Amino acid sequence: MLVTPRHAPRAEGRRRRAAVRALHARIQRIRASIVETTDLDAEEATRAVVRVLARRILANHGDSASAVNIAPHGLESMVVTELEQLTEGWTWAREHDATADPDALTPELLGLVFEQLVNGLGMGAYYTPPDITAHLVATTVLTAWLDLLESDDVEWGVIARAPERFVRADARHGLDLELPAHVAKGVADATLRDDWNTIPPPAFALPGETWRETIERRSTARTAVETCARGEVRSVDALIANNLDVQAFAHAIVADASGDALARMDAALCALRVLDLTCGSGAFLVATFDALWRLARHVLACSDAHVDSIDQTAARLAIRAVHGVDIMGGAAEISSLRLRLALVGVAGPAVLDATPAEPDRIRTGNALVADFSWRDEFHEVFATFGGFHAIVGNPPFLEHPRAGAAYEPDAPRTRSCANLAAHATEVSIALLVPGGRLGLVLPVSTIATERFGPLQSLLAERLRHVCLASFDTIPSSLFVGVVQRVVLLMGATRAPCDTAPCIAWGTRYRKWRPEERDQLASTIAFQRTTFDGPLAGSIPKFGAAIERDIFAKLATNAPLRDLLVSAGPGQHCIFYKRRWSYFLLFLDFEPEMYDGDGLRRAPSELKTIHVDPAIDHRAVLAVLNSSLFYLHFSISADNRNVNRREIEGFPLAGLQPVHERALIALAQELMVATRLHSELRECTYRSIGTIRNQYFFQGRCKPIIDRIDAVLAEHYGLNAFELDHVQSFELRFRVSAS
Questions:
Q1: Could you give the CA distance from residue 501 to residue 466 in angstroms, rounded to a whole number?
Q2: For the residues 188-212, what does the mean pLDDT come to?
Q3: Is the pLDDT of residue 560 over 70?
Q4: Residue 202 to residues 206, 208, 212, 622, 641: CA-CA distances in angstroms?
Q5: What is the pLDDT of residue 405?
Q6: What is the rounded average pLDDT of the residues 682-691?
Q7: How many Cβ atoms from other residues are within 10 Å of residue 558's Cβ?
Q8: Which residue has the higher pLDDT, 121 or 197?
């Protein structure tokens, strides 16, 4: 029987986040006061604040010498005193101190505050949540260490002997329980799934799941457990593609090793070199240090190393791997201070005496331009290894024209993408050794729009393996307070002689509610995807194997663009809104909108397409409102706006007369229901004042949409399971679960 323990208490994580928010808000007020009353700008004020707080925590950890050397230049003594008084009454503790007050202020908590201070300076950077940072570090940095080991030192058999150690607990939750009969009957018969959209008991489900999602997660987890048990996970790439616990595996093979193997593992740690080329305030660098410190400590403990202090020796090993660059001097300084705090936090202030210059592997400069000399700035890395073994980070998402002349990129392949995230990806690939690991947070548009086609071509050419996990912004966003759709890219560069096609894996465009946030990374489920999707510039975001089968059946049809014409007299018009939420809105009438004087006006976001007069436009109208089109859009688009590319590229041709007549009738019924389920809502905008908009409750029309999909299932030859998948796609978000 599989054991499915629940998580380490999540209340602790919520308490820590609340502490960060409270301290951050107080420090922000002080920083604003500094800017108003001194000659310091926001960045300079941030650096000054950070120096005071870093000095404070170092002194509290007994490192008075280092604290004295951190001078808060530019601040009046009164402001310094105010900042120091800010932390009066706090309990101070080192990291990983089991005896400490759970509400104590640690270097990590203060580091998170530093991160938010820097990311509020408008440089296109976003605060990366700790769980996402840790996930990318594990799948990039720890896997790079595994790559450096000799093949005989990686004991893959530990996975087969105990799969439940590596298939994550969240993914396995409830897997040992038998499904209730009223639910189980739908597994083999898609017509018996009436209860699948209800909420299961907590023993079966993770927060937020319906039975349908619980069953899907259980199926994925069972496949992973069985794959592991058969001994089929025998590569680092397979670890990532199955979303296994990389850290647990790394520690397991260390515990299983002995003698010379442990010495080689220690040597691999000594050799490993990691970079964040837009490091900001050092979140990824600190996470890298922490993961490597834990691993090095385990290696030293298992090898019975004769060292004065395992904690200090492990810290010195870990810190040597960490390198960073940032264009902002203040951010680079904060990164160095955070690493110093991390060192002190795990090994005490004495560790700084043995590694006084280690945190100075951080550089200030523009890593994306040719003027930055990598071989000079990091001579040891390139002279010894020829490049970095792993690169992690969250590069700025700024558009290139907004970035200014200082950002003219040294990225010829992606220059036309005109986005710093694309340029950073190209530069990163160039800095990696063959077989090096890449882990980046990127805008989802990089894998879903034609504009980023050059980047996608580069990835297909230079990577041998890539996993892409995509995340939506509704109803919740990965970046708190920021509407930014993202994809986590985890890849490995290919050897010069490797000409095999890149193996690509992806996820669905994932939506979630706040109560599901803590299990996002642990329940990532990859499906095989391709760089040659049906729409140019789009890597399909498949969430299940059945979606690939659906796409294959759709692909036998010609694109909808063949049925569209330019506007002209007598042409049949379909209106659509570019902005969308849980439904796409296509109409045969113009929605109502009135200005403050009650006069009718045209909605600004309304677009039109025109259907060939030889085709009844109502049949096309029905298709565009279908859940099948919504699924195709979610898998293929960047999900920001509805663009003509997605409409024109949808496969639709050769409707049988019986299907066309049915779709026409359903379109008429849908338009009547859409008008019926609408209301005028008053909104006030700064630019145009008060207006009244026609707001549509499209979820109430879902039964009609389901009938449209049933007709389309006959046209495309979808089976009962495929039709069920289409009709239920993202159902709990589109229509509330019962």
A1: 11
A2: 96
A3: yes
A4: 7, 10, 14, 39, 36
A5: 56
A6: 83
A7: 11
A8: 197
Residue 7 has pLDDT above 70, yes or no: no
- List residues bridging with 505 in a β-sheet: 467, 528
Q: Which fold has domain 394-543?
A: Rossmann fold (3.40.50)
Structural contact between residues 90 and 104, judged by C-beta atoms closer than 8 angstroms: yes
Q: Please, how many CA atoms are within 13 Å of residue 581, restricted to the half-sphere of its CB? A: 10
Nearest to 352 by CA among 342, 362, 365: 342
Q: Distances from the Cα of 209 to the Cαs of 203, 310, 509, in angstroms?
A: 12, 44, 16
C-alpha closest to that of 574 among 565, 582, 583 = 565
Least confidently predicted of 198-207, 409-418, 462-471: 409-418
Burial of residue 239 (number of CB atoms within 10 Å: 0-12, 13-18, 19+): buried
For residue 321, the SS3 value is: coil
Q: CB of 328 within 8 A of CB of 282?
A: no
The alpha helices in 230-372, defined as continuous H runs, are 236-241, 246-256, 260-271, 283-302, 310-320, 329-347, 350-354
438 close to 424: Cβ distance less than 8 angstroms: no
At 295, the amino acid letter reads L
Peptide bond into 475 cis (omega under 30): yes
DSSP-based three-state secondary structure for 325: strand
675: which residues sit within 8 A by CB, 6+ positions away?
A: 589
**pTM as predicted:** 0.90
Residues 6+ apart with CB under 8 A from 330: 43, 44, 46, 47, 50, 118
The whole-number pLDDT of residue 3 equals: 29
**Tokens representing residue 423 in the block:** 């340029």
Give how far Cα 171 sits from Cα of 132, 245, 512, Å: 17, 11, 16
The tokens for 228 are: 């592991």
Residue 213: per-residue pLDDT: 97
End-to-end CA distance of the chain: 31
DSSP state of 307: -
CA–CA dist 726, 734 (Å, integer): 13
Report the pLDDT value the prediction gives residue 28, as an integer from 0 to 100.
80
Q: CA 365, CA 326: separation in Å to the nearest integer?
A: 6
For the chain, how big is the Rg over CA atoms in Å?
28
Average pLDDT in the 659-682 region? 96
**CA-wise closest residue to 168 among 541, 518, 546:** 518
Distance separating alpha carbons of residues 146 and 111, to the nearest angstrom = 28
pLDDT value, residue 83: 67
Of 117, 96, 33, 68, nearest to 334 (Cα)?
117
Comparing 276-280, 434-438, 488-492, 526-530, which segment has the lowest mean pLDDT?
276-280
pLDDT in tens, 144-180: 999 999 999 999 999 999 999 999 999 999 999 999 9
Question: If you search the block for the tokens 């240090």, which residue do you land on?
Answer: 289
Task: State both tokens at 699.
Answer: 């979820």
Distance set, CA 26 to CA 31, 45, 89, 117, 562 (Å): 9, 14, 15, 11, 60
Long-range contacts of 657-660 (CB under 8 A, 24+ apart): 659/711, 659/712, 659/714, 659/715, 660/616, 660/619
In angstroms, the CA 248 to CA 420 distance is: 34
Lowest mean pLDDT segment, chosen from 204-218, 390-404, 641-655: 390-404
